[in-house]
Every structure is written in structure tokens, then in C-alpha cells.
Amino acid sequence: MIEHNLTGKAILVNAELNKETAFTDAERRRYGLRGLLPPAIETIERQLERVLHQLAVKPSDIERYIYLASLADRNETLFFHTLMSDPSYFVPIVYDPTVAEACLKFGHIMRRSKGMYLTRHMKDEFVDILREWPVKDVRFICVSTGGRILGLGDIGANGMGIPIGKLQLYTACAGVPPGCMLPILLDIGTTNASLRADPLYLGLREEPPEEKEIDAIADAFVAAANDVFPGVCVHFEDWKGVDAMRLLARYRDNILCYNDDIQGTASIVLAGLITALQIKKEKLRDQRIAFFGAGSAGIGIANMIVSAMEEEGLSEAEARARISLMDVNGLIESGRTDLNAWQKPFARDAAATNDLLTVVKTFEPTILIGVSTIGGAFKQDVIEEMARLNDRPIIFPISNPTDKAECTAEQAYNWTNGKALYAAGVQFPDVEREGTVFHPGQANNFYIFPAIGLAVYATRPERITDGMFIAAARATADQVDETARNKGMLFPLQADILQTEVTTATRIAEYIFDTGMASVERPTDIRAWIEGLLYQPRYREI
Ligand SMILES: O=C([O-])CC(=O)C(=O)O
Ligand SMILES: [Mg+2]
Predict the structure, then answer these.
(1) What is the DSSP letter of 264?
(2) DSSP designation for 426
(3) How many structural domains comprise the chain?
(4) Are 237 and 116 in the same domain?
(5) Of residues 19, 123, 166, 240, which has the active-site annotation?
(6) Domain with 282 in it
(7) What tens digit of pLDDT does each residue of 162-216 get?
(8) SS3 readout for 328-340
(9) Mapping DSSP to helix (H, G, I), strand (E, B) and coil, where does residue 370 land?
(10) Is the pTM of this model over 0.90?
């Protein structure tokens, strides 16, 4: 039973309460809905049929995205029922890659405002403004400045599509109840001059301030969020890389927060590597890993790999020596004077170069990871060299959306004679080659952050640690069985995403209890307890 004091039309425009044609006769009488609805009384399954019919006649995924966004505004239950009925079909529509197009066009396609917009000019009033949010028990805030959205760069307030989409996946992929979530766009301005010149742009038409001011705004924001919503988890998403790393370091030991681009991405890449190395029957500690890209994702992955190698007995220095990074200015090597604090520990004593092929030839990596946002950066000669050096090269071009991937699945399989163990940030279709079907993996953090969310929702820890993300990686990898691995599959099936993430969340929760970080009592059966908390996309009595 949902508590409320609404009647008539007010119920039909409330997305949480609205059931449209599924209101029973008794509810229609009780709330004065009789003449406001057509006489048919339908099940949610019949309503889903109508949704699918309407989606089928849309000409493109962006149109389907717009339709689904309006459905979410109108009828939350039916929206999640739709997503959860076929996650492998719907995730690419409400999330990457379609959400990329939606963000680029955000000011043009917007219908109804969702979540909250806080601007830098409201800094002294963040508390009062957050109190305007109608829900008091907010447990998750996903906040972005839009400073680096996916591989699209700075798109300012257009980035709002990302906090909205990420939080929808907490529910669709891990069953976290949707009412406790708040997407926020923290508008600090944008460096994107063409957006600032677009008459339909919805954000501040200003350059962002300097780092010190950004930190002051972020400080005011996290303080206000914790003041208004005690116990809230702040999920940072798609900030400019250096801001992301600096602010994670600033807050991770002081408040309940995480950065999905740094920790979530690292966790899913680690999961893919664990599976790939199970296929190869090798250890992580023996690998040599080359990164093309050394921003927040690259550094996040590199650091998590170092931690995982340390667990296998290497020292930190030994682990770092097995990693080579490149950024736009070339190899991260000790002669560089432009390295940031997070890159410096990875500087190698090697000759300066900005040629990836040279790095591959000299460093001889077993694993190549792309986090550069430069589409097509893994050229044929680079991939062929990886195949010459390795019987089964591991190739992970993670940048997204699709046209930013450093190489496609088809290229990787063709250029390695089908030997590559491949995963990208977006889902590429299966590739058929000389009678064999290859299944490219999707190393996307959506396997991880909803499960972290569910575990945090259940156990209420005071901090989020890298250990939780490593536990999530291992749990995800453990769910790829031998039959799947034999087919070269690196991740669990997306069709089973809810079961997968509940299992992952159970493992994270166990870790949280084992390490004494939970603030609730340990139940005897953690999985059953977590299952009891899951949101069900079914109509409840009102
Ligand atoms: O959203 C995604 O698909 C992955 C991600 O975090 C990013 O690219 O920033
Ligand atoms: Mg992101």
C-alpha cells in the first residue's frame, strides 16, 4: 500500500502512483478516476504490449529514448517493468550508446525536467534548494558537472542525461527502489563554446571557474547533500578527469561516496581481465598492461590492477612496473614535466614517444586497454603486433559511445585471426568469421555500480572502499561459467542482469559485513535479506 492523500487527476500525473488503465474498479471509484480513464481495465502485461507496439514503430533509438523518458515521467512502474522485461534490448536505449546522442541533443529534446539543477551561483543556498526536493529519504545522489560526458568531452548541462540514466540502472539492473534517488546536474558552466551559443542550450552560458572555486562549490555541495539527506551516498559521474580524481581523493575518507568512472570502470575491466586470464590459465601478476589514455578511467583501472597484483604477492613498485600508460602527450615517462599527481607514480624510465606501435613493440604488453576517447586509435599494425607477441592478446577498447571505440570487435578478431579476447565499452554485435561466431564483451561499469548501490542500500556503510569494487569484480567474473568462457565470453549475460547484480551485491555485502563496515546487523542469509529489499516493477495497491 502506498501512502498518499491525492485524488482524481493528481493521481494520474503522479508517476509513482499512476497505473493508467490498470486501476481497478474499486480504485477508480475510491479516487474519482472513473470518467478520467477509458473503461478497459488492463494488466501491466497488456500495457507492456502497447508500449512495445509503440516503440516498434519509432524510426530510431533516440526516438525510443524520448518515448521511454516520457513513459518514466508518466508511469514509473510501467517504465521499469518495460526495462526489466528485456534488459539487453533496453539498456542500450536508455543508457550507452543512445544516451550519448540524447545528451548531445539534450536541450533540443527535453520534455519534462527531472532531478535537480544546482548552479555555482546557488552555492550559499544549496541546503535550502536541496530541501525543495519532494522526497526526504534520498539515499543516492548521482552528480555530474557535465565536464566530461562519456567520450564526448565537456557538454555542460546537457550531461544531465547521465545522472538520470545511471540512477535508472540502479533500479533496472539491481532492483534498488527508485524513490530514493536524486539525479543532479551541478552547473559550473561549460568550456563548450558552440553549446553556449546554442539558443536551446539549458545551462549557464559561462566558462567554468578555476580549480579552487570548483573545489569550494563541490565542498558546499557535499556538505549540503549530507546535511539535507543524512546517510546519502554521493555517486560522482562524468566530471572532468582531473576534477574527478582530485575530488575523490578529497572526499573518499570523509563521506559516503564513490566515483563510477574511476572505481566502477576499473572494477568491470578487472572482472573482464580475471575472466580472460581464467581462459588463458594465467595470473594477473604475470601480465604486462599497456594503456592508451591516462585520464580518470585509465588511472583508476591501473590503480585497481596494482591492488589486485599486490593481492597476488607483488610489491607496489613491481606491480606498477608491469603497467605502461600513454596520454595525448605521449608515453608517461620520467622525463615528462607535465604529469599530474596521479600519473607520476606510473612514469617509466623509457624513451619518450607518442607512437603506440613503438610502445607495443618495446613494452611487449599482454593486455592493451583503450581509454582515450579516440575512435579507431588501435590501428591494424598495433593489433597485429599484439597478436604476434601473444597467442591470445587481450584487447579492451573501452571508450564510448560506439564511434569512440579504439577498434571494433570485427577489426580485433580479423586482425588477430580470431585470437583476441575482446571487450569494448559498448556492446558490439557478434562477429562471424570463417564459420566461428565470436561474442564481444561489454566492459561497462553498469555491471558494477548498480550492485554497489544495492549493497550500500542494504548495509549502510559509512564509506565506500576499493575493496568493495575488487569484491564486485571477482563476483562478476565468477558468474561467467566454463561453457561461456569456452566461447570466449568475458562477462555474464545481460539478459540475466538482475540476478547477476543481486549475486554481486550479495558478495559485496558479505565483504562489507566481514570488514566491519556495515551499520546494520548481519542477517543469517544475506542473499534472502537482500532479495527482500528489491524493488518489484508491479503495481501496488494505492
Ligand atoms: O556510462 C558509460 O557507459 C560508461 C561511463 O561511465 C563513461 O563512459 O563515462
Ligand atoms: Mg561515466
Answers:
(1) I
(2) S
(3) 4
(4) yes
(5) 166
(6) 263-445
(7) 999 999 999 999 999 999 999 999 999 999 999 999 999 999 999 999 999 999 9
(8) CCEECECCCCCCC
(9) strand
(10) yes
